[in-house]
Amino acid sequence: EELDLNEVRGCTKCVLCENRTQTVFGEGDAEAKIMFIGEGPGQREDESGRPFVGRAGALLEKEIAAMGLQRSQVYIANAVKCRPPNNRTPAPTEVAACSPFLQRQIQIIRPTVIITLGGPAAKLLLDIREGITRARGKWFTYDGLMPEGPQIPVMPTFHPAYLLRSYTAENRRRVWSDLQKVMERVG
Ligand code: SF4
To answer: 3-class SS at 140?
Structure first.
């Protein structure tokens, strides 16, 4: 809350501050074992100040429920805290400006596992080149807290908005398989 109130809400470190209605810090259990990270706020998130609302958020909540959890028991955040115009992918300079906030969120929460949602979030967090179709379902490691902090296992999966657009049995099976791997790891 201090990070949000004192640093993020008034942040003007990159041009994304110019068009935002408000920042979208993230929400959930500060001691969550599972942290979901998306790319950036969309229109509904910009209006509400909350991450993953609307149809994609509802599907994410279904996924969380399928894992036997409630939304309030996990933590949900984005790589950038302000909405990119027309929902474009955040520029590298914008991600670089905002990443210290995400890093500190991860540092505070210290989740057992991070789940990245969609290709851009995986690339931003893990600095990988492969697309989400290849990367999903495989374990990666977040090293951003090293050397003082632990390495954190990361499972990339499809973004719920993509899943809504391509709501095939195969894609649903893939996401469920990714979430099951996380459940096994978290215990
Ligand atoms: Fe600041 Fe991040 Fe918003 Fe850029 S996206 S203005 S760095 S809070």
So the answer is: strand
Q: Nearest 10 degrees: CA dihedral of 62, 118, 100, 27?
A: -10
- Our answer on whether the CB atom of 80 is closer than 6 Å to any ligand 1 atom is yes
Å from CA of 170 to ligand 1 middle: 36
Positive or negative CA dihedral for 8, 10, 13, 19? positive
Three-class DSSP category at 125: helix
CA of 97, closest atom in ligand 1: 7
pTM, rounded to two decimals: 0.96
pLDDT at position 127 over 90: no
- In whole numbers, what is the pLDDT of the chain averaged over residues? 96
Tell me, in angstroms, the distance from the centre of ligand 1 to residue 88's CA.
Answer: 15
155-184 pLDDT, tens digit each: 999 999 999 999 999 999 999 999 999 999
3-state secondary structure of 77: strand
C-alpha pair distances (Å), 71 with each of 8, 64, 108, 133: 23, 6, 18, 25
Rg (the chain; Cα; Å): 15
Dist. CA 63 → ligand 1 center (Å) = 28
CB-based burial, 14-29: b 16+ in 10 Å, e otherwise: bebeeebebbbbbbbb
